[in-house]
What does this fold into?
Amino acid sequence: MTEKMKVNSLKAWLLGIRPTSLGGSLVTVLIGSGLAHGYAPEKFSWTVAVLCLLFAWFVHVAANLINDVVDFQRGLDKSDPERIDRIYANGLLTKRAMYVGTAVCLVIGCLVGLTILWMVHDKLIWGGWEILAMGAVIVACTFLYSVYFAYHGLGDLAVLLCFGIIPVCGTFYVLTYTLTWDALWASIIAGASIDTLLILNNYRDRDEDPEAGKHTSVAIFGERFGRFLYLGAGLVCIVMLVLLYVDGRISIWGFLYTSIPYLILHVGSWLKLNRIRIGNALNVVYYESPRNFTILGILTTIALW
It folds into this structure.
């Protein structure tokens, strides 16, 4: 694959931004927007919701690009044509292109974030300073994840925070100008389901990660822990759906048509993980995990809406 593709080509960029992972950003904004519309439809703004999605996407792409460079420079990622996610290690994008792409995405993301702030600052509790703080944390985590969190067993916590609590609660907040416990339950659904992709990636690389000084939770606690962490992350989502039902935020039918399909898909992927356990054959679960959390996000949004 790498021999036929030109360096810095459009196809290389499309692989470099990892489009299959961007469903994670979509899920966070969908769930936050769905909850906001169900909570206060009179305040809901499509413009603000779309801007939240654009902010999430641009920052997510920046994180993907910088993560590729850091992992290669630390000796973690080696050239492997079978691993299409290793775009920099395979020589398909140059270091300069990766850095420029990261900077452009962060600048655009920050401009989008400032536009959101300008539109809603006068309606917020602290005049918008809290939104600046949320945005600063997310942008900082773009770098900290790659250079620190991922190497010290904190990657799962970072995903829960930056692909769950902050973006879902932040989206809900700029659309309703308030925060509720329901926003926290919904944000954990996003964060825990998206974390399954990271867990699977860490599980697949559990033997080579420590050699490069990357100590993920799976590498620290072992293969069996990784398998059941993957399963447990999905089950946490079901528990959060129960809480949303108990709080009256979703109906019993909303709970059933959201939880049952996701549980079937998630457990199915987990069974494949249990059967395969090692090697590039795990790629099938790597691609199923985004499918699972995207479907969960869409169904949860409909139930909340």
In short: The radius of gyration is 19 Å. The mean pLDDT is 88. The longest helix spans residues 46-73.
